[in-house]
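Hi there,

I know you've been waiting on this one. I reran it after we fixed the sequence typo, so this is the corrected version. Both the input and the resulting structure follow.
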Amino acid sequence: MRFSISTKGFTDIIDITDQISEILKKSKVKDGVCLIFCPGSTCGLTTIEYESGLIKDLKRALEIVAPMSDNYEHCKRWGDCNGFSHIRSALLKPFLAVPIEDGKLVLGTWQNLVFLDFDNRPRNREIIVKVIKSSSD
């Protein structure tokens, strides 16, 4: 299954938990793994408590690790000046695997699935979701 989202770029963080849960529900898989992927080298997927303070903290931490204002070799070569977004994607990864038990994603009480768009412009992104049934299901 696939779905699309529009982003603002610049480390836009979007909660996608409900969309993934709905896809899982439609699959009727009770036990297995949910693989979430976004084609692209300037985005990421992770889990976090989707709370405004933590979202600000995560953005600040990413700015420390790979600042937007640094002079990246990528910008010198290509002129698109989004080297920071590629570095952030390489560190967080554009994919995530979540276990499925009893037809539900195995997530902690405050744990949400989030998509991060690191690029330096708004984007339309496609999220690919593969629900893989356990052989024992």
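Quick highlight: The longest helix spans residues 52-65.

Best,
R. S.
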